[in-house]
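Much of what follows relies on a compact textual record of a protein's fold. A record is reproduced here so that you can trace the correspondence yourselves:

. . .
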Amino acid sequence: MAEHGTAAPRPATQRLLDRRARMATRSVAPVVGDAPLSFGQERLWIMSQIQGGTGGGGLVNVFRLRGRLDRTLLDRALTELHRRHDILRTVIGRQGGTAVQRVIPPAPVTVPVVDVSGETDPMAAAHRATLDLDARPYRLDLEPGIRWLLCHLGPDDHVLALVAHHIIIDGWSEHILRADLSALLADAGGTGPAAPPAPRHRYAEYAAWQRTRLAGAELDGDRAFWRRELTGAPPAIALPFDREPDAESDFRGGVLRDEVPADVAGALADLAAACGVTRFMGFLAAFAVTIGRAGGQSDFVIGAPAAGRTRPEWEELVGFFITAVPIRVDLSDRPTFRQLLARVRERCLAAMAHQELPLEHIVADLRPRRVRGRQPMVQVMFQVYEMEPTPLRVPGVEVTEDQLFRGTSSLDLSVSLVRSSNGFGGYWEYRGAVFDVATVARMRADFYECVRRMCDHPDEPVPAWEARS
C-alpha cells in the first residue's frame, strides 16, 4: 500500500518495510525433487478433493485474435512458456500420505482446435466451449492445472482460451503469463527482442520457504497480533439476505459487471490523496459503511486479498501466492468520514504488516464460532486491483480480451474494482443461493452513493439513514 507525501512512515508502514528488508537478506534454499504444497495450495487441494475436482476456482480468460495466426509459432511459444514456469508442469502427488507438488518433464504443447465457424453465433459458441473446458473436473494428480483451447471462428479469426486452476495461478501471475507469452511470440517470430531469461527461482522453493517460516517462531508476533485484533469480532458479517444460508445452501453464483462511474473514481482519488490514504482504503471505507447500513452492524470483518509476494524473488514467479487478510471494521460512535478513513488506514496497514500468517491458521488458532452455511471468519471480500493491465500481444494480430465467470461463489459476496483502460471495472460476485440479483444491484447503487457523499462531505458523520429497500 503506497504512502502519500514525504512524511516519515507510520509504525505499521515501517513494520512492512522492515520485514521485507530483513527477508531480502536471507537466501532461498533450492528444492530438489518433490516439494510440499504451500498452505494456500493445500487448502485448494482439499477443496478440490471434496468437490470432485471442481472446487478451487481459478482463471477463465478468452483472447479474440483477428488476423493471420501462425499456430505453429503459438505452440512453440507456449512450449517455452511451460518450460520456464515449472508450476505449469506441476501435478499433485503423495509422499508418505502427504500431498506434494511434483514437476513433470517439459513436453511440446499443442493447443487443441475446435471449429465453431458453422455456429449461428461463433463467439458465443467459443465461450461455451471454454466454459465446458473449465467445467471438466481437474485431475490434479494426473495433469497440470492449466488448459488451452483455440476456437476457429472464421477466416483469420480465432479465440484463444486460457483456463487454469487457482492452485497454480493468481492475479499477479496473469500479468506474468501475458508478458512472457507476448515476448516469446515476438522472439520466436523474429519481430522483437530476445525474450527475457527464465525466473531464477521456482514456486516449489516458495512453498518450502513458507513451511519453514511457519514451523518456527518467526511468526509468533503475527499470531499474537491476530489474537488481539480479532478476539471478540462477530463470527459472521450481517448481510441483507433474500434467503438465509444454511447447511444445504449451495455455491451457485452470479456476477454483476459494470464500469465504476468516472465521477466516483475521480472524486475518491482526490479525497484519498488529501487524506493520506490509498484508493483501496477509501473505497473500503465506503464499502464498509454500505455493508454496515445494510446489515445493521458496526463491528465486522471484511477480507482483503494480499499479494503474498513478500520477497523480491517471488515477484517474477507464476503461482498461487495470494492470501486473504481479515480487516476488522469499526463504525461505532458514528465517526466522520475523515475519521473513518484514518481508522481504516491504520487497520489496513496493521493487517497487511501481518499478512504472512495464512487465514486458515488464524481460523485454527482463534476457533471462531461456526455459522451454518457460511465460511469461517471471512464471508465477504473486497479488493481494488490497481496493477496496470498487461495486454497479450501477438505479432500481426489484433487482440481483445474478456474474462468469463464460472457461475459459482464460495463467499457470500466478493467485490473487485479492477483497473481497465477506461478507469475501473466493477465485479460484484455473489451467492445465488442467498441473494437475488436485485439486492446486489441495490447494494452496488448504495455503495456509489456512499462514495459520492463521503467525497462531498468528508467531515460529516457516517450516515445513519436506512439502506433503501
Summary: The chain has twelve helices and 14 strands. The chain has a mean pLDDT of 90. Residues 437-456 form the longest helix (20 residues). The two ends are 35 Å apart (CA to CA).
